[in-house]
């Protein structure tokens, strides 16, 4: 009986991350401080350890993964590459559909791939505590897990409305020993100020970031951790694509199309960039490779945004980055793929999209749940709403193959399971969910707020 | 870097289940009908297919696993055998701790190991629908998944109080296409009668079983499925131990101690019996093997029950089985390991305990959560409350090794993850959980209700 799961041993866990900054068509535009000048590494030292800052700036192609990090990765990595034979049959497609399953991590998604090295480098730098923000809880739970592995205390500022509506993710963080506060909290100046204005403030990711950064900046023993967008996070996620390459080598195939959901973009970069590295190196197999970032029609930064300098956060605290953006104060509707509700996209993803090295599509919410349920009924695994976006586009590509008769090899990133998102499925089944499309008027408004430098 | 996960390929999925009925010290006492005579296979034909009834009665040592079943098993099997190196370090034990992780199934536990063949044999017999009961939802979700794989309609009667308190499990079943009704329901005579008596009836597993059996008995296109206790369920679960044997062979080790949680007993039999089969065959490596069934102090059927004929269900509908029992109407307290709240134990487990082939221990609730949290913080995976019982005893055995200096090989069954049980952890953290010990008075009462045959 043929294996549908292509497995690797612990020894096959890559020894180096792949850094696409070495293979870009031109250098990345630098982040800019409020004075319009390139931000200096020193400005980040209050909240990040030196090793992370170095990775953020590096253009080295291969960066060694510390052995201590590989030993934690080993708890769930290498993750399986799975051929979705039952889904292929359900679709009647000649395409070969493969998914890389990142839901096998204890936190249930790809996020620990970066949380673990971030915790490690902070531990190495003598840091005792990490502070971070979390919306629905995916990143917070990953940092809680990773902090526990290196004996770091972890404090998570969780957006109040999620804190109250999603107790399971909060409990997961507490099980791994983290302190979790509803944000705005009374722990920080920012939080106290927000509560003084409005004691019932439901919180926002922008506020939670501000609280976590304020704490990290104020305490010498504490640093801050971010779960997407930045170069070092995309670097860490390259483990996904590097493993997938080894797995395809094992079965003598190479993908024609790579598909991943795209919010901040770290998991998409993680699966696609190592293959784009082959293309940059002139590998014939990658010559016609297509990489498709999938975003929601409600928050289509790559497909409807503009390529410009904008802030990484809603409040404008971060340096400005050159990226596709809908405007940093664009507020996407409350869709269930919380991980894709980001106004911009990683500068690396943005540049490669601008240079036409990758493609992007936007898909409406209902079609993603429909695809996720077909997947669950075929392959068993119940996918996270974010992952349903990749499944939707993978199915669409497989159906095109059915028309053309092409037996393309399609790889998609199953970034996580939906065990903590079952209420989203409930709302889908009960007909309460809607398709939101990007409101043109609102963007025109939010795009007038881009940073202006003298 | 040494692998801590011992992996197998799809081709290594066993081709036959192991049936310990071939290797018992004496024949199993037959189930008895209400007339005190051995129940006849024909009596089961209204609710089970012939292949299942045959397996229930069989004393063949090896029973072939249909290829169609292996192809579904392949979606998550072979499950990993993992060396818990970080837990060993945390304990400072010379013991080698291994766990077989059954939480990798789409339903998150070992239950699909039997749900899949049950759905398959019913499909083969021309059955179009399955009805079943579920308490917290582990079995219901496994049958929903398995039914979907063979195109069977599935109706689940879910105890009303769980239906309302545990919406995530219900949603999982619906995602896999099952109909889920709160029991008592208006769909059956039993349900309507219960609701007429009390419209606010919270339901019970006994009632839900009655509804599911009533429906299966009344409809020619519908059969019933049971998730533990019976011989054929234990048979299907032997896949766990058979794979573990192959995995230990791969690394040249053999377990000295095998530990599993024990409610009805199918997962415990599943992991332990294939090794006991070695012992029966005179395998020297198994000569001193200890197999320990772990139950809660609140529901200690093996450690405080008596070995006698009793009904399998609370209401006395089933044939009487020779087993360890606390009395079929003993009502265990509402502990969080719902899967271990069973008044009896599988006849196979019971006989082997009576014959001193296996051991049993009872552990209090708080100590199981403490063990589960240490495990989560060491190995990452958040375990189900049932699995925490095995972890507790595995830790206790490892700590004994620390005292004696013995490097024993300890295998425990990590039967499932706790993603749908996070509220139990919340109650533990908030100090709301108690240790319940078996109330001697109550059992004296419930043991006066054992069936009496003329």
Short note summarizing the structure:
With 454 residues, chain A is α/β, with parallel strands linked by helices.
Q: Which percent range describes the beta-strand content of chain A?
A: 15-25%
Q: By helix and strand content of chain A, what is the structural category?
A: alpha/beta
Strand numbers in spatial order across the main sheet of chain A: 1-4-5-15-10-11-14
Radius of gyration of chain A: 21 Å
Number of strands of chain A: 15
**Which fold name corresponds to the CATH topology of the domain at 4-12 and 66-108 and 231-447 in chain A?**
Rossmann fold
The coarse silhouette of chain A is globular
The helix fraction of chain A, in percent, is 40-55%
The largest inter-chain interface, given as chain pair and residues per side, is: A-B, 46 and 46 residues
- End-to-end Cα distance of chain A: 66 Å
Mean pLDDT of chain A: 94
What is the CATH C level class of the domain at 4-12 and 66-108 and 231-447 in chain A, in words? Answer: Alpha Beta
Major beta-sheet overview of chain A: 7 strands, mixed
CATH architecture of the domain at 4-12 and 66-108 and 231-447 in chain A: 3-Layer(aba) Sandwich
Oligomer: homodimer
